[in-house]
């Protein structure tokens, strides 16, 4: 597997607070990767380290096979607040992009602006949130990157604008054949746009893999009450719940489930993500438990 982003024992500290600790991660090339986790999981810190806006306190991070920040001409980045310059016009942004990026695709940028019906003379500060997000995406795509990183780019948009943004992203991925890392705490975003999942909680990878494979190898089994240690060794228990007479386990296995005592059901992506999130929070006090937002 060729990794477009690799982190080893990566950490970032602000004063006495660690925003990211002991993070090991490999992001494969050729995928639209959903980097999912609750608020405060370290997603934004990780992406800012990847593009060189922050420097690690501990560990290392590489992007496209080089230290973070060394290959920025090949990396597109749309930050969480989809940054644009309020006093600059749409056309000013395109001219700025052309001056800063040696591989700038003027035709792609102008065609996207035309298709989105953005007035080139309009100042960015007068655009809607969805229009600013689309302008920021245009700037990221027109530099013709090998890797595009998006830090919750649609979190503040209304459902229609969010759907349009993600649809445009998927079309661009198909046309340009680029790798994408999409950070989000919305499972619906990942379902709509991604084919690879990484769940990050407290900077630790809980699960990663192609979404189709993860869904095919995770199951909910329900049957007579028993302890997790009685299950076959090839069945990794992600979560469990019990009543007096019945047990329910969420398991991961590559093998068929042969025990006839179990009723087996498949999981949704939401089920899977929340189960891995719950593995971390089982021993946390209620006030400290993160919340993963699920929207449809």
UniProtKB/TrEMBL annotation:
Q: Which residues form the ABC transporter domain?
A: 5-227
User: What CDD domains does UniProt report for this protein, alphabetically?
Assistant: ABC_DR_subfamily_A
The answer to whether UniProt assigns keyword Nucleotide-binding to this entry is yes
Upper lineage is:
Bacteria, Bacillati, Actinomycetota, Actinomycetes, Propionibacteriales
Q: Which UniProt keywords apply?
A: ATP-binding, Nucleotide-binding, Transport
Question: One MF term from GO for this chain?
Answer: ATP binding
| Superkingdom of the organism of origin | Bacteria
Q: Which organism is it from?
A: Kribbella amoyensis
UniProt xrefs under PANTHER family: ABC TRANSPORTER ATP-BINDING PROTEIN ALBC-RELATED (PTHR42939)
What's the protein called, per UniProt?
ABC-2 type transport system ATP-binding protein
An example of a Pfam family matching this protein is ABC_tran
